[in-house]
Amino acid sequence: MNLLAEDAPNVLAVPLDELILGIVAFLIVFWALAKLALPGIRKALDERTATIEGGIERAATREAEANALYERYQAQLAEARTEAAQIRAQAQSDKLAIVEEAKAEAVEAAATVTARADAAISAERASTIASLRSEVGTLALTLAGKVVGESLEDDARARATVDRFIADLEAQAAGH
C-alpha cells in the first residue's frame, strides 16, 4: 500500500509554471479591468447615485411644497368655516331683527286699527245718544202733551226740561 501512495501523483499539487502563468494572467486581466472597465462602472455608479440623490432632493422639495399647500388649504378651510359661521350668525341676527320689526309693525297696525275702531265706536255712540235723546225728548213731549191735552212740542222750555231730566237719569246710571 505504501507503494501505491508514493507513486500516485498529488491531485492538489499545482505545477509551478502554471501557477506563475495564472498569476500573471490574473494580474493582466485585473489591470485591464481596473484601467478600462472600472472607470466606466464608477462613472455609471456616480451618475446613478447623483440621479437618485437628485430624485430624493426633488421628492423632498415637492413634499415640502405639498405640505405648504396643504397647510394653506387647511388655513383657507378654517377661514371659510369661520366666515360661514359669521354669515350664519349674521343671518340669524337679521332674521330676529326682521321678526321683531314685523312684530312691532303688527302691534303698531293693531293699535292703529284699534284706535280707529274706538274712534268709530265713540262717534257712533255719540250719534246714537244724540239720536236717542232727540227721540226720547220727542216721545216725552208727545206723551206729556197727551196727558195735558195740549201740544208741548213747540215750547223750548219744555224741551230744556226734558233734556235736563234725561241728563239726570244718565248721571244716576253712571253713579251706580
What does it look like?
By secondary structure, the protein is mainly alpha-helical. Helices cover 90% and strands 0% of the residues. The protein has three helices and no strands. The protein is rod-shaped and about 195 Å long.
Give descriptors for this structure.
90% helix, 0% strand, rod-shaped, single chain, mainly alpha, 176 residues
List the helices and strands and how they pair.
Blueprint: H1 2-7, H2 16-148, H3 156-175
Quick structural summary:
The protein is mainly alpha-helical and 176 residues long.
- Beta content: under 5%
Helix share of residues?
over 70%
Order of helices and strands: HHH
Rough outline:
rod-shaped
Average of per-residue pLDDT values? 86
Instruction: Give the strand tally.
Output: 0
| Uncertain spans | none
Radius of gyration: 65 Å
What distance separates the N and C termini?
A: 166 Å
Helix count equals 3
Structural class: mainly alpha
Largest sheet: none
Assembly state of the chains shown: single chain
